[in-house]
Specification:
It is built from 7 helices and 10 strands. It is an alpha/beta fold. Helix 5 packs parallel to helix 6. The mean pLDDT is 93. The chain binds adenosine-5'-triphosphate and magnesium ion.
């Protein structure tokens, strides 16, 4: 499904992101070009400071580039108002972070429901979808637990369920296993594997070679540039530990 005929979901053309700190200019992204097609599974690697998070923030519409063109599903994000961009982010992007970013006072179910709060869905449907998302990540038995009552891997599963609730065209993950031990990391990678197998497009940042080896394509960054971009010849495939429903 990810051959040359698959639909392009992300297209970056000559993207720059410059930060100014005092008189210094930092080229966090320096002429980045990237095309990602539907159902690709991409790992982004590179040293600390190479621009990986900056890239993910641009891809996730959390940040705008200083120059260059970013087409999301064929739509030029540079031409979108802040409101449209926020809407595109909400509808098309699921974001998973290293530190989970869950709301501590809310249950797993309420956390997963959060992105639907601005939708016009009646609460029963919101609840039903949140439950289905938690089921998809294998947490149907933890819906009432708050984040402090969950393990690291479970917290990340809740965050993944939240990222999936609006059925995004792209799942972005910035160091999703950065706070997890190696066994739990493998479980999360098995979950990504399973999501990908069911059609999800996945882009994840990782420092960890072992984690990157789950992806089908590996992009290396250096000094804000993409300096290599190739198919992963040494792929690891895990059996899924939580099977999402088909479709
Ligand atoms: N808000 C900011 N203001 C100024 N400079 C920034 C800002 N955010 C990032 N940078 C700089 O941009 C460069 C790229 O940062 P980025 O966070 O994208 O790196 P990274 O590859 O994600 O690193 P890490 O692996 O440590 O997470 C770094 O030199 C960083 O210092
Ligand atoms: Mg980073």
């Amino acid at each position: 499904m990810d051959g040359p005929e698959a639909r392009i979901v992300i297209q970056l053309e000559d993207i720059h992101r410059e930060y100014r700190v005092g008189v210094e200019r930092i080229h966090a992204l320096d002429s980045a070009n990237l095309i990602v097609r539907e159902n690709e599974y991409v790992a982004v690697m590179g040293q600390s400071g190479s621009g990986k998070s900056t890239l993910m923030n641009v891809l996730g519409c959390l940040d705008r580039p200083t120059s260059g063109r970013y087409l999301l599903g064929g739509d030029d994000t540079g031409r979108m108002s802040e409101g449209r961009l926020a809407q595109a982010r909400n509808e098309r992007i699921g974001f998973v972070f290293q530190s989970f970013e869950l709301l501590g006072r809310l249950s797993a179910l309420k956390n997963v429901e959060m992105p639907l709060v601005y939708s016009r869905l009646p609460w029963r449907q919101r609840r039903r979808r949140a439950l289905a998302a938690l089921e998809r990540v294998g947490l149907a038995d933890r819906v009432a637990h708050r984040p402090t009552q969950l393990s690291g891997g479970q917290k990340q599963r809740v965050a993944i369920a939240r990222a999936l609730i609006c059925d995004p065209s792209i799942l972005l993950a910035d160091e999703p296993t950065g706070n997890l031990d190696s066994r739990t990391s493998r479980e999360i990678m098995a979950l990504f594997e399973s999501l990908h197998r069911h059609g999800q497009t996945v882009i994840m940042v990782t420092h960890d070679e072992e984690v990157a080896r789950h992806a089908l394509r590996i992009v290396h960054m250096r000094d804000g540039r993409i300096f290599s971009d190739e198919a992963n010849a040494r792929r690891i495939v895990h059996e899924s530990s939580a099977a999402p429903e088909a479709g």
